[in-house]
Amino acid sequence: MFKQNYLKLFLISFLFLFIELLVIRVVSTEIRIFAYMSNLVLLAIFTGSGLGMLTKKKYSLSLSVLFFFLISLFLVIKYIVRLPNLEFKLFSGITELLAPLSEAYIWMQVETFSKTGIIIGLFLTLTLFVIIAFAFVPIGQFLGTSLNASKNPLLGYSINIVASLIGMWIFQTLSVLEVSPFLAIVFGQLLLIYLIKNKNEKILAVAGVLATVVLLAPKSAGQPFEQPNTFWSPYQKLILSRITNPERHQPTGWFLETNNVAYMGLLSLSPEDINQRMFAIEEVFLKNSQDIEFSNHYSLPYKFKPQPKEVLIIGGGGGNDAAAAYYAEAKNITVVEIDPTIIRLGKKYHPDAPYLKKNVKIVIDDGRAFLQKAQKKYDLIIMSLADSHTTSSSLTNLRLDNYLYTKQSLQKAKNLLTDDGLLFLSFEVTRPWIGSRIQKTIEDVFGYQPKIFEVRSKGAFGWGGIIFVASKDKQELDKILNNNLKLASFINKHRLTYNTKINPLTDDWPYHYLDKPRLPLIHLFTAFIIGLGMTIFGLKNLKANGFSPAFFFLGIGFMLFEFQNISKSSLLFGTTWTTNLFIITGVLIFILAANFAVYKKIISLRLGFVLLFTTLISQLLIPLDLFNQLSGFIKLVSSVLFLCLPHFFSGIVFANLYTHSKNKAAVFGSNLLGSVFGGLLEMFSFLLGIQALVYFVISFYGLGWLFAQKNNCFRA
């Protein structure tokens, strides 16, 4: 019986984190707005789990199985709702309905504003939030019951941490193996069935699994829900399709979508192909030979710097930039791309096969991390649009590309340029403030206004964009244009300039899609909805079921600091799935070490609080860039200790308080609900910057200290 209880605790703890990560991934993939605020899904999960631990009414795990079917149904349904002056896809259309509420630009949004649409969008969001929360209520309740059944509280809590760790690693393994998360949800449902003992409830759960399988099964021969050309990379969902019926002036190739949004074409840019289409291209551009010569933005960098020796491409994507560099006879080409699946698709499907060329070196890494580590000098650094329509982690509002365009990042790029080297940055400037912020940031780094101009080709050479060009030596750029008057004339014809009375992008405020430091409306509405839900549930009801203010405030502090941890680790090691995996693994290992320290009575509760505040204050006093001056094993060990020590001492505090709590489920649930509010308060980084959140962390841990004192926990 003893072993059976711990086996149940292990399985439910494993499933809690495993299914949590699956749900976050599929929701933020299929409903695009959650790709930019995926922590909303996390908050729904924590809300449901926390309430499950605090409620006394019993809920069967079979309900979780059914709700996971319902979530899958909401995500794959293609039903179109038609109202007067309003049309949208049910649930998947939430992005378009709520886009007007977002001050940050959302890619490929429909340019419409409808008050009715906003209300419907908020209602659908609330519905999805409630469904996700209810799916995790039985899981949270089962977990809480299992924790209460543990005769050794620290052992039970440690089993919970180990199982969560394994759940996270298995989830990431499946992601690397490109297993569809929808199929993995079915696997999670089957494990839930194993934990159900009541026969009728088990039959109900089996029906839920069968319904999910039918929903995701092929609808006809060769036509499954997920097309054969759908790939799940460690970061995003990719859909590859052949470009069919292009116009005569447009190249052939393949079209790649990320998270159901247009991303890029894998285009044939060979001189032979361009020559074959030249007559049609001339028709498109009429008699403007200048536009024909300079409108291939992939080849344009080599009009500035012909036949360069060393080229660095940040954000290589499917290979267009590499193909252009190859045809421009660049001697050595280094391509940095964060997504290994995109590289694999580029190798296999790009018409020009640039990634198979001998002089092309591929580096699978985050662009900022590569700039941080690189030592070689480059004649030309090309930074392509790197947005991947997703956040770096479910614990943060940072996108994968946020740190790539900051002052610190561009300074690294400048340092890697040769004395006559050039930075060629292209971006799809969809809002004036985006162009203003990029221009301002480049000006602050290079000391002068870059050349800014627009390049479009009506599809002859891809989509084009807004180009920012700066040289390490301003005189070098002037010299290039003085020697190439046709290029200078083209730039002047298409020249752009932006208002630079705006804050530049920095590592502390890297939000280039947000118009200014502010609390975004969509986040405020989200906070209001969750707060209203808590009020309806009733704080008195929570208190009657064992709600613990001390654990609630500890949960807020933990979640806010974890956001800090992910952000800072990204600056040290890159915004990659491996960074997130190993940092969170490190945090959980430190928590296990804290459990051992409490078990051995090495550190008391009072000393744990003192050391927690000390290490948090050190986060404010010690500059993070200090660790980037180190290298190898020394950098790894010192930075991990610096980032994770506060988690060790918060683990000491939690384990001490948890051990002496009568209702383990109630305090654990209170901690999860605190994490929900911590996730909501994360929005203040948009207003104050990331570092300022440390003050919030210290304040909420301080409230945890006060309530622990009020409850005489220090005498225990």
Structural overview:
Mean pLDDT is 87; it is low at 220-224. The chain has three domains: 1-220, no CATH class; 284-387 and 407-493, Vaccinia Virus protein VP39 (Rossmann fold, 3-Layer(aba) Sandwich); 518-716. Helix 3 (39-54) packs antiparallel against helix 27, helix 22 (549-573) packs across helix 23 and helix 24 (605-621) runs antiparallel to helix 26 (632-659). The protein has a seven-stranded mixed β-sheet with strand order 9-8-7-10-11-13-12, sandwiched between helices. The chain has a four-stranded antiparallel β-sheet with strand order 3-4-5-6, covered by helices on one side. It is built from 29 helices and 13 strands. Strand 10, helix 16 and strand 11 (417-427) form a beta-alpha-beta unit. The chain has 716 residues and is an alpha/beta fold.
